[in-house]
Amino acid sequence: MVLVALMLNPGVAGVYARSGRSINVRVKLTFSGSAASSPINLNQPDTTTGEDNVAGDGTLGPFTFRNVSALAKTPQPSSTCTGLFFPRVVGAGVFRFQDGSLLTVNLTQGSDCIDLVQMLAHCTLTFQINGGTGRFQNASGVLTWTETARPVLADAFNNPVFFIETGQLTGTVSGIAEEEGRD
């Protein structure tokens, strides 16, 4: 009987860990990747659609992230940007982690500040987490994206069209399913 109880105990603990116990995690994720225009049409007036494709690592493990957002076509006034300021008006993204879990987010606010002297952009985006799959099925929280982007390719009119980007995401993710074997 004792041997059977010892053999079943790890299985019961694993079922318990997957059956609703969740944790909150302060996260820091670093990334690098590329950005360009997107063929996806978000049907927002006076905008163009851009896409970020990055990979990185951090508190939640290795990941890839694809984000699509609508960006104002013309610069807007800003008290915080000394270059060209382009607000992002709507967007969404999907993180894919090494364990196959997906984390989905919606853009709540964001902007790109372009420095024409240095030929780089500083971008800040705020994402609302709205669940996902696997360990992120019931996740919520807010993530802040900060990045620096530099052009690597321009069109025939010398307008940058393809960019490299590096940065980080910080924030808190609540409701993550605790992984089996964690205390």
Question: Please, could you describe this protein's structure?
Answer:
The model is unreliable at 1-19 (pLDDT under 50). The protein has a single domain (23-177), classed as AOC barrel-like, CATH 2.40.480. A hairpin with a 5-residue loop joins strand 7 and strand 8 (160-177). An eight-stranded antiparallel β-barrel has the order 1-2-3-4-5-6-7-8. With 183 residues, the chain is mainly beta. 9% of the residues lie in helices and 61% in strands. The relative contact order is 0.21. The two termini are 26 Å apart. It contains one helix and eight strands; from the N terminus they run H-E-E-E-E-E-E-E-E.
State Rg: 20 Å
Number of helices: 1
Beta-strand content: over 45%
CATH class, named Mainly Beta
Name of the CATH architecture: Beta Barrel
Low confidence ranges: 1-19
> Biggest β-sheet, characterized?
8 strands, antiparallel, barrel
Tell me the CATH topology. Answer: AOC barrel-like
